[in-house]
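ok trying this again, last paste got cut off
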Amino acid sequence: MTDPAVPPQAGGAVPPSFPPPNAGAQGFPPPPGVQFPGAPEVKPKKKFLAKALGILGTLAVIAIVVVIKIGIGSAFAEDATKDAKAGDCIGSKSELAETASEIKAEIVDCSSSAAKYTVLDRVEGVKDVNSPACDAILKEKLKDGEKGNIIASAEGEGYLLCVKTN
């Protein structure tokens, strides 16, 4: 065996080198980074495309979750006053304000302490609480000293409930 630190003598064995002289020949893989003429180019992976698709996929999942949450929420958030008619009583945890505000109202038994308002009339097809649609009704049906108000719903075509305070 020859010592690799000692140069070979004339006619002696040649120490192995890298890459071997026959690298790339049949049966031997080519050395790293060497490309032969006519061979297809190896393109680097497109990290940008993969990253963009990942972001778009994430956004799509978020959008689907939001749509499902809104859809399920609106399916369970039923309009509690949709069947209210003249003579029904309405209960609410909050008072109706002088200006438009959102409240949670529901039909309650008129003998209940929760009955804060009595429906005087219902106006269909109007969603705007500031509409004058209840003005004539309130003027006609309220007695001196009684206070009237309006509850609006935007469900479907919308409606107004012209109510008096109990």
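PB: full thing came through this time. The helical segments are 47-76, 135-141.
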